[in-house]
Amino acid sequence: MLVFVVKKLLNAALVMLAVSFLAFLIFQLAGDPVDMMSSEQSTQADRDLLRERLGLNDNFLVQYVRFVANAAQGNFGISYRNGQEVLGLIADRFPATMELVLVATVLSLLIGLPLGILTAIKRGTWYSEILQFASIIGVSLPSFVVGILLILVFSVTLGILPAFGRGEVVELGWWSTGFLTKSGLMALILPSISLSLYQVTLIMRLVRAEMLEVMRSDYVKFARARGIPRHRIYFRHALRNCLMPVVTLTAMNIGTLIAFALITETVFQWPGMGMLFIQAVTFIDIPVMAAYLCIVALIFVFLNTMVDITYAVIDPRLRDAK
Amino acid sequence: MLDATPSCLEVRNLVVEFPGRHGTVTALNDITLDIRPGEILGVVGESGAGKSMTGAAILGLLERPGRIAGGEISLAGRRIDGLGDRAMEKVRGREIGAIFQDPLTSLNPLFTVGAQLSETIRQHIPGTSRAQARARAVELLQEVGIPAPQERVDHFPHQFSGGMRQRVVIALALAARPKLIIADEPTTALDVSIQAQITGLLRKLCKEHDTAVMLVTHDMGVIAETADRVAVMYAGRLIEIGPVEDVLKSPAHPYTRGLMASIPALGARVRTLHQIDGAMPRLNAIPAGCAFNPRCTLAGPRCRRNRPDLIPTRSGQAACWLYEGGVE
Ligand SMILES: Nc1ncnc2c1ncn2[C@@H]1O[C@H](COP(=O)(O)OP(=O)(O)OP(=O)(O)O)[C@@H](O)[C@H]1O
Ligand SMILES: [Mg+2]
Question: Residues in domain ABC transmembrane type-1 (chain A) (predicted)?
Answer without folding.
Answer: 94-307
